[in-house]
Amino acid sequence: MTAVLVVMCLVVGALELYASRRARNQAEAFQHRIDELKTQVGKQSNVLVTVGEQLTAEVARVKREVLPGMDSRLRHNTLQLQEFKDLLRQADDHLRAQSTRLHELEQQKIIFSALRRKLTDVEAAVRPLLRDGAGGGGEDRVETALSRISDLERGDDQIQELQHDLTRALEDVEDAVADLLRFTADELDEKVTASLTGRPAEGVTVAGRLFSHDPQLRDILAAVYEHCVGANLLSIRFKTTDGAPERLRYFLAGRSMAELARGYAALLISIGMDLDRGLAQPDDAVALRAMLRTLNESIGATAQIGPLIVVRTPERLVCAVLRHTQGLEFDSYGVLWDPAATAEWLSRLPAHQVWDLTAWAAARPEA
Question: Could you read off the pLDDT of 107-147 as tens digits, one per residue?
């Protein structure tokens, strides 16, 4: 009996020892799992802190750089819209004044025509009296009437010329107003897009200018220039003369200055090295070559499409692709309307930015 009790005690002790060891192992495993979870939570916390710092820095950058620029651009666009409104109001007043003047001239023309018919009737009535032997005083009156009719006819011709000039001026004003309305509508569409999406509408406007000393080439050169603009995936937002018919200013949109600079540099390199001879050329290369050859026919001309500057003097045809800071400096000097001054300014640029295409333009075009 004692032996049985001892054995049972030993068994119970063994079971307790086993249970105690198993509980300790489970506790250690549980503690290990807790430590792993703490490590993971610590890592996630560090990631969240890093992301939070990045978001804070980005928000600060937006507040510091983007928001002031948006506010400045909004104020600038508001001023532009106000200027356009003033121009439209002035154009509308001018149109009304010209319409009133045209109506008055039409009324005067009707009166002069009626007076000419009346004098013609008087002449027809008086001439039989002269043939029947009427006195010399009647003949003098008839001659005076005939002289008056001639004067009225000349005045009528002058009125017709004036009406023609007025019609042409009205057509020019209507074209300018249509351009202003289209440009203003595009600007307002962009504002609507910005208000609906909460972000500024995408769009970049770059400068374009064209100048030529040759009146005979201006229309042709303008057509070739605008074709080159379209072939380079740019659209003409607005076009105006800069105080003289030989000066044209363009506001172009569709591509950024950096993108245009890369494209024009590649095209000018291929032209300067004759890399495309005998090969099928893309539309932008064909259009640029056509514009360069047309400019070469002038005795003095300049053209600008964003960063691209082309100048033709009596001696040379020179092209350059400007960097952003150089473009600002070039605009500040205001030499584009003077081919000689433009060529002098371009000669101070680094050699890798300038292409002298005088010999290329003088050669026969590639087949």
Answer: 767 776 766 676 666 666 656 654 554 444 555 655 665 56
Closest CA to 304 of 337, 271, 329, 281: 337
Side chain identity at residue 186, one-letter code: D
pLDDT tens-digit readout, 200-238 = 555 567 889 999 988 889 999 999 999 999 999 998 888
Name the pairing type of β-strands 247-253 and 308-312.
Answer: unpaired
Facing residues of 355 across strands? 319
pLDDT digits (tens, 9 = 90+) for 3-25: 777 777 877 777 777 777 777 87
